[in-house]
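Sample pair:
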Amino acid sequence: MLVKTPCNFCNSDDYIRLVQVLVSPISETSWLVRCKKCGLAYINPKPTLERERGFYDLEYFKPGEESLWRDHRYPLFEKVLSRIESTIPDGKLLDVGCGKGYFLDLARKRGWQVVGVDVSSTATQFARDTLRLEVYRGELRDAKLPENSFDVATSWNVLDQAYDPWGDLREVFRVLKKGGLITLRVSNLHFHLYLQRLFTLLNSAVPGRLRVTAPTVFHIYMFSPGTLRMFLKEAGFVDIRVENSTLDPNVPALVNLVGRSGEVLLRNTISLSAQTIFYLSLGNLLVSPSLVAFAKKP
């Protein structure tokens, strides 16, 4: 079931439709819209809170898929954690939407005190029972974590799938210590929207049997570099930096499109092209499939 909803950031009901999409990962067809007041792009109508919670609780993390989540994200985890440690070498770290806890496990091995939160009972049970991590099941606000208690907060492609990303981000601000760092990753609206439009145009020119599904991802909220900075700034963060994020290896959508050997070539080409465009535009254009942001609580 889908329900109409106002903008999560400014609560406006005034929007324009951008494109009809398949909502990932719930696989419901709806409209991607853009708020006329603040510019946030989001799915409207979107799945109900009950539908979304039920999906992430029981369907998103399936038994036997541990290697899928661990191996796909580990290169990113190691790279970004090293970046974090260049600013804050150790301390207490919160991972919002921690899933099965692989990033927390890596951080703990490198000396961090770690805590995680996730809505999935399957994932949190794995994190507790198998990895022996301190993980809370539910929304971030439900964990009732102490104010000013974490040195670092991370979130990996979760803010764009959250039912209330604006509320979650303000809660992260509350629990971070002064000088604390937030690092988060989200899907890039610009990349996925323009790629979807390109594939729609190309598919319109070929017979049905030759048409190819675009390897795009549309979550409940789709952030551009500008709206991601807006969220962070209005939540109270400073020293905001938004960058291209590297692609995860062996992404099923790319493997299905070009095969495993082609996936490596395509992934490297996309990353190199995104960084080239970033530097040629003097840092103004971010066109990678995902964005990574760093910001500090003053």
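The chain has one domain: 2-296.
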